[in-house]
């Protein structure tokens, strides 16, 4: 690959307001997929490697703050300002159920087996819903003292991890609805993600990115980033991470050396969300500018819509506009 190769993203248009959350599925027999949440109230499903629009989930009556898709890409879930979390058939776009809340739902996440859905709400509570019994009352996890920003179900367990505007990360045991442990920060934590093998947790707060062992929340490494970090994601082989910032910049770091590998601007607004694809070939970012963009992990590699032309140009398709 020539040294003059430059990072040119695939730009996925279609949203009309800020894109605030996104999530890739795992690799399925057909492909892999990405769902995006937007303040326009219309979450979208796309092909994960090309960004091609597949469909829009219609039914919310307010800004959608959280979106997720299960690993098989058969179910999707969204959380919104209309005080609901909705469960969708990802293949047909059909709404399967709407779960009522007492305030804005900011976060949604499936368990690894797709049997449970955890939600984080601005009423400061987490709720765990049994997807085999829609009418059953959810388990409620209480303890945060401010709005919940993100909540995830740890792989292979019934453990919930959440971050909040109260400047804490909390770990919960859902078998008895109790808080197991708590981490306190000087800044509001902005993002958490577990590695795809379920071993590590990556977290951002302020100008800092931190890695923890998911099993016992032991801190492994800490990285200082030049700008305030709004979102972070670790690649599948756990060798590097990417993060987005409020100054419109994306950064890539080696986890082993701590060295910054790449930094560039592409969005025209702060970056709100970011995640690696399940094969690690691309990562997606969503921004205040209303777009979702796909970036190559290895610039110049022939993959998806990217085609290597010569050492002076990295791709022939510089954008994929979806209207």
From TrEMBL:
GO terms for cellular component: SMN complex. It comes from the Eukaryota. SUPFAM superfamilies: WD40 repeat-like. InterPro entries: WD40/YVTN_repeat-like_dom_sf, WD40_PAC1, WD40_repeat_CS, WD40_repeat_dom_sf, WD40_rpt. GO terms for molecular function: RNA binding. The keyword Repeat applies. GO terms for biological process: spliceosomal snRNP assembly. WD repeats lie at residues 57-98, 98-133, 141-182, 264-296. Belongs to the WD repeat STRAP family. This is Serine-threonine kinase receptor-associated protein. It comes from Brachionus calyciflorus.
